[in-house]
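Notebook B, p. 112. Complex prediction, attempt 2.
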Amino acid sequence: MSLQPVKFYQTGTFTVGNRLLAPEERSVQANMQRTNSLNSGHRACQGCGEALGARYAIDAAMNASNRQLIAANATGCLEVFSTPYPETSWQIPWIHSLFGNTAAVATGIAAAIKIKKQKGQGGDVRVVAQGGDGGTTDIGFGCLSGMFERNDDVLYICYDNGGYMNTGVQRSSATPPAARTATTMPLGPEPGNQFGQGKFLPAIAMAHEIPYVATATVADLRDLEYKVTHAMSIRGARYIHILVPCPLGWGTASHDTIRMARLAKETGIFPVFEAEYGVVKSALAIRRPLPVEEYLRPQKRYAHLFGKSPAVETIARIQALADKNIRKYGLQARKGA
Amino acid sequence: MDKPFAITLNPGSSLANHTGSWRTSRPVYIDRLPPCNNACPAGENIQGWLFHAESGNYEKAWRSLVVNNPLPATMGRVCYHPCEGACNRGLMDATVGINSVERFLGDEAIKHGWKFDAPATKSGKRVLVVGSGPAGLAAAYHLACLGHHVVIREAAAIAGGMMRFGIPKYRLPRDVLEAEIARIVDLGVELHLNSRVDKLPEALKEGFDAVFLGVGAHIAKRAYIPAGDASKIMDAVSVLHDMEGEPDAMPLLGRRVVVYGGGNTAIDVARTAKRLGAEESIIVYRRTREKMPAHDFEVEEALQEGVMMKWLSTIKESGEDGLMVEKMALDENGFPQPTGEYETIAADSLVLALGQDVDLSLLENVPGLAIEGGNVKVDSTMMTGHPGIFAGGDMAGNDRTVTVAIGHGKKAARAIDAWLKGVAFVPPPKAEIATFERLNTWYYSDAPKTLRPVLDIIRRQSTFEEVLGGLDENNALFEARRCLSCGNCFECDNCYGVCPDNAVIKLGPGKRFEFNYDYCKGCGMCATECPCGAIKIVAEEI
Amino acid sequence: MLKQCEGSHAVAEAVALCRPEVICAYPISPQTHIVEGLGEMCKSGELADCEFINVESEFAAMSVAIGSSAAGARTYTATASQGLLYMVEAVYNASGLGLPIVMTVANRAIGAPINIWNDHSDSLSQRDCGWIQLFAETNQEALDLHIQAFKLAEELSLPIMVCMDGFILTHAYERVDMPTQEQVDAFLPPYEPRQVLDPAEPVSIGAMVGPEAFMEVRYLAHAKQMQALERIPQMAEEFQKVFGRKIGGLTHTYCGEDAETMVVAMGSVLGTIKDVVDEMRSAGHKVGVLGITSFRPFPLDAVREALKGCKRFVILEKSLAVGIGGIVATNVRLAVTGLGLQGYTVVAGLGGRAITKKSLHALFIRAGRGELGPLTFLDLDWEVINRQLERERLTRRSGPAAESMLRDLGTVASKIA
């Protein structure tokens, strides 16, 4: 379990730091000497969840790898806002190749590292690949699946904000049902994105039976850091799917990014769990259960569900999806959780 | 590395791009006033000393506490803790046991013999303090800390005032009180016992630059109750006072004791009677339990100990057969009205606990000094109508608690200090209050309040041992760590962590944080995710 | 060491001698035998310290190559035809990032209709992708060009395609002189990357470049190819010093000194052409040959120099720029601008159509007589074409052209009912 029942430390491990914790129990982000792998001066929107999630994850990976880390990055917001010529925000060796090939590029890097190490020409350098949901679940899926299947020594991190935000908020296969995007407008008999099977990549990753699959959100730093750190302790293909709210695409206030991620988790909309070799090992229980309306209402992409005549049925269908997650992953609130 | 042009870039070079120019509003760190501090009559910085207690640095916590209150072990026992009533944590699970932690810190100080720091410089001024109750002791302490020479004149043979003569020892063990008084005396305060000031003008002739009066309210209020010869009627002040005398001078109350009144003093007497061996100890009060001025927890403890309550009753007469009691009924305004129904209850003694008056005799012939409603009239700096003469405690207000008195003593001492320097005393401005809505309570761990151990019921009915035990260190630490630190940064690193632009600079332990406005885009996440409401978003100036 | 072996095998062995560190493979005919050979060598340990990765597509193959090359590993892959097209986005990316990957393209036609046989459509579709493209005439040249390619690519930090005709070379058993490891090691220094992903010296590779610098980046890519234009002939000389063979260079001429008709071509067909030229020379025809080894960078000066003395030239190419004609021809014609020469474009051998000596002989005779049109399709079956055109004119739903024509030729079963 990622959440340890610690002695009562005022805020326990909910906050980023806690001066009352033993140094070894403190988060990477609380460290004054943290790497800030993604440096200031990047051009992400105000309150960008992806910028935050990326720094959380990559700093943790840097920490876990003793700063011996190389990152491959898919085309997308993260790439565009971090590396417009003539400045880059990355403080680690980093490469952007294409939109759909990041997992393969990472495989190549891992292969090179393996050989260099074998030849005594290089150390134990680790590789992460990262991309948005479009670059991961859609265009990059083939390369990702290949990397999983070969069990290449790569940690792939998907920052899921539920759409193609970089190109102006279009639908991806990770866009949730009923959500408005530029290509799923709230018009016609079924406004917003269609209801369907969904494409929940963590489950697909698990089907590859790779050593480690986990989900996380930017609302729970300690859980996220634990998962990245744990993933870095494992060799082979690993996948972490991080929910990163997008103020622009979701139509939320820039200061509410973490709150939205928290609501996604607390309503059961986004299950936070980890799995090893295709089997779920643990799930973060809901702490303060809430109906999905609490999550949907602050988001303008769901505005058509409310207004004068609320789309009660649609909301109920979304609630049913959350309820299914709660049952499937055992997210029921537990006492003292 | 001979890097290819444009496609390959130097690490972290985006620092050249000052995204702060995007900002339309900016976060600023502020210290809001925690509701506990706001509610404390002694003006304690509760959140401030809890902060140190949280990390287990009890001496630092105690030193922070005694900046405002020199009697934490005492206050940790007898304060009615309005702080806890205001505590935001009460809206989450249960209020923080501030009072218990204060007592723990006070007891630690006694255990370890921590002393006050002597003042760095002496002012050469002499200040007379009349009375060694909480107000006088507090004033003496603060004045001494400010470098003034303090002479306390106490009428009784023993110091402490109402803390000694009004509060039973099962609530405040005398060794605790004495240890805390001794510590103040150790600051160089002259304490003269059996030194009643009868005439203030005369006392002033001994050469004082200022005076603080804290003589309390010792004169019991009486009610006219027709009584036969055999009736034994006493007042609560005397009973409690006699408890402090020699063991053979203990008050003789008999087997059946009736206490008349509804305040905390009535409860104290009724519980004392039980401990002195009374089989029945009955409180007669003219209104209902809800209307009783005594604190509910004290009523509850008294009931647990077997004290009986007779609500809606007035005593009409005391005779051979006992007390004649008339039943009352509340009218539409909640006032008790006689019903004409009577009953008789047996009683060996009747103790009147109907409040106290101030003995104002020492103030005769002091020019300018005004009396109002039986109290000395003071201005907002605790100064009486006579320049240089200040007053506080029970004699200067209607809210007569130890805590209020200690607050008066502090306030008066600071005003005296200013007066002695010839400047006007200006209290520091109050920050806005850190209300519950300012907090992001998600971040606080769930943790119920630790209850102090309560003395076994049989023992406390018959002995004067302290009823409420103290917290042990683990519990005290746990309790301190339940503090939400409302409105004041407790270095949780949330702002430092949640900023997507790394625009928060961590300055290191105890030094808090700074915003780097070169990069802060003004998203406001730091303020939203600050657990304790110590960040405010303000509009950016053009 | 002389040995008789399959072209693919010769290339695999030459690549192995270059001590590659990462090889990624995805099967597509006719390059498959090369990576099969390398895979076997890696698995057996014969090729040590090399990671052989079976990827899930050509797009992944080139992407893996991008990653490994950027991380400092000498990287090789091979592809052909549809595979090359499938990886195109990554092909452009590799050159844009300046990664010295060496890739064999076993040249093959592009569908539809699907066709596994040789022509140059695949490589030439990528003429502007920023890679250096070297075309091998023989298996010996193919294997030697690979050794030169690694050295040149790494020097310039540019990727190189070594193009060899599918089946005609890849599957042909020929005698080759296989270099020794010592020779290769003496010629090819270890890979010293210009830029590398290294935690000790972090950089960001692959920045987004806007209008303010994009033109300059593109010009620099061009300038690098211009540098290659100088280095390629030098490389051939250096190679000769170590290996004793003159291989590579920008172009080769054969019987060009006094030729009135020059035939320009690339790849294995040059062998057939030379045979025809030999025969025609015996009969007194002044015919010569210009073989182009380096198609990118295109050696404008060398081609002009080689052709300036002739009266006419025939460009025989295994590719077609649909809607205009030749691809190689367009480049060659640019080289001779202003010389006032008569030029003929001949498209031949598409999809593996045999280019026979007989046809070439007749073609060159007609060229010499000035009887050729500007664009000729060698050995086209006009009967089939005319029938199909007529069919399409008459019937809207005339059906798929390829299948209809094959039916005309009787090579597939007639339609049922």
